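haha ok so turns out i had the wrong file open the whole time. this is the CORRECT one, sorry everyone. sequence first:
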Amino acid sequence: MKRRRLTSGRAVLREHPEVRGGGWKALPVPVGLRAAFPACGQVKRFLLNREVSVQIYEVQTDWGVVDHLLVRPHNGLPIRDWYKLQKIKDDVVGADRVAVEVFPRSVDLRDAGVAIYHLWVLPPGFELPFGMHLPGGGMVAS
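then structure:
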């Protein structure tokens, strides 16, 4: 297995049994990342594949515990392919979980100046009261 040096110099790529496919590797949160962004101390998991890294945070809400996926492409370019974000969500937390991407009010916008995507994965079994549902319970097909 290939080893990668990250800021800590000790981070070793390793398989993570919870990750489903996608060539994902789980890493300890790099020391340099924790130093630059103190909130990274709350990261539940740090995953990467050839295209993106994903930081997973747990957030307690009125709906239960929500997984916040912070997705960052390695090349810094925007991901505007819905299917790529859907695959990332499916690979990391499972195809049976519902996630949303939020477009906040302008006053709440936090722009890091780089391509970062925030997916909020709702608790297992949670269903939104809206979506691409057809009468009778089916989903709209593309």
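The longest helix spans residues 82-93.
again sry for the mixup
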